[in-house]
Amino acid sequence: ALLVINKPSGVAVHGGSGVSFGVIEQMRRARPQAKFLELVHRLDRETSGVLLLAKKRSALVAMHEIMREGNSDKRYYAMVLGQWKNVKQHVKLPLYKFDTPQGEKRVMVKEGGQASHTIFTLEKSWDEFSLLEAQLKTGRTHQIRVHLSHLGFPIAGDDKYGDFARNKTLIKQGLKRMFLHAHSIAFSHPLTGEPMQINAPLPTELQSFVVKLDAAA
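Now predict its structure.
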């Protein structure tokens, strides 16, 4: 019913906006015998981690229902600039989508935007960085990135909402991508009801950045 992949950073989930070939097109090409293959949800191009695809329409419809009703638990790891204070923090800020003059999709915190809710838990902190786990209670576009940027804790390496000067320095320190990784998702299987827990460990390039921070501390 489902197919799960650990998406690398830098790969779009579907074609469009300057990308002709995304994950879904690649998977369909790799599985020509598959009658049905659709994305259950999306990940930003720069984000790595757990991505669900449906192999049956019934599974897709049921998964969308599960996610709409808030019956799935999606969690991400994000490395932010600055020292995060609270062990656990609920962030509820309305998100408004707009297009830049260049035609790029962007999101900002604005009254009248879509309601959104993220729960951040502090995993570890260093002098200039904090590693957070973000639990999505809603799934808005760029939700984690915009919530953190708005609070003054941009994600390390974020090329849309981050600290561009710091990002350049981070590249020299070995972080060449955004530090945002979808590390787990839990839900009841859409057809059998069996509890599912899927985890994707931190990619090597993110893990090695954490090791560097530990070594410097």
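Residues 204-216 form the longest helix (13 residues).
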